[in-house]
Give the backbone structure.
Amino acid sequence: MRPVAAVALAGGAVAAGFAARRLAQPAQPTAAAPTPVDAPDTATAEAAGGQQPRLAGARGHIPALEGLRGLAAIGIITTHVAFVTRMSYGTPVRRLYGRLDMLVAVFFAKTGFLLWRAHSDHARRDRSGTARAVIPYLRARLVRIMPAYSVLVAVAMVLLPQNRINGPGVWLRNLTLTQIYQRKFLVSGLTHAWSLAVEMAYYLALPALWTGLKNLRGDGARWRLPAVGAFGLSGLLFPLIPWQRLRLLPRGVNVQILPPAFSAWFASGMLLAELATARPGLLARLSRASYARWGWWAAGAGALLATTSTRWFSEGFRHPSGREYAARNGLTAAMAFFFLGPVVLAPAGTRFRVLESPPLQAIGRWSYGIFLWHLIVLHYAFPLTRTALWTRRMGVIWPVTVAGSIAVGAASYRFIEDPARKLLSPHA
């Protein structure tokens, strides 16, 4: 393991250890007992005799997460623009452009947090069974992902000339999000859909995981944190195993894009869900003051910047070794944890002015559509600006691509995503 990754992972382990220690302490049956997670607000809790305030991430909508999601979407667009304008390598700034696609980890961590939170809360309330029924959950996930994505596949296949040679098999694999399990799966306008295929795999796998942990409740809930941590660690070990040399996977399939390689990214959000629904401890205290939040974000930025170092990591879009890939995923899992942590572990009612600003809230709300359509927008940004592909005109291509993606993403939300949700899953 590379030194920088080892430091980041060791720091994460220490933080998890502190948190586990706090979670293991039994609640006091006095006026100083922790506030239930559905306590009305911080002021009410403090007036009740010094009780612990409820954390912002314990339940309900968290506007600042939308802002983070919007920023992540813009970062991903930046990397793809930098790649096709040959601006993703050569200098420290360009190398950073080339690694902003690692902000996909923020998407995955947010998904892990939101989908896991109800189950961690359910367990800490010592309730039997699971918090959600599987069928309604899967229906809601399919309704969220598939309508707009299906339209994207059809448009990319029909509109882009290089896709017209693709037969029914390519259509089917992309429509079912099973393309990553094949060789040479890349299709113009859909190359970024590998992340949706990974996300869909986790949607299907999470019910098995939350069912497997359903008996870790009440006093046993303190073991949930190490269990989720072990799940995340498995994603860092997966790329280190020579699957194809052992003939456990067919040659040509990209092991580093298969779902098990990303469990650390999802687990970073799931760990935050466990912490947000538990009794507030050390990490929650480190999220109260505004200057402390900047410390979290600086640590996350440092983890991302570490992945741009040419001493430890390859430059550009080269296929890394298993060790390098595991180290990079470990750092970006830490990045996602540090970026989301101060938002979900802050006291309820904490405001984040920039993240909750109307522009970022709108971009966050439209971010799925922005992400879906940005490669097609990027494809047409070149002829629109009379720029040849691979020309170093990132300053021209980037604003056109970002503005166009936001516009198309807003239209996708207005005319596809929101109507589909209201029609197909009105109670989700």
Remarks:
- The chain has a mean pLDDT of 89.
- The longest helix spans residues 394-424.
- The radius of gyration is 22 Å.
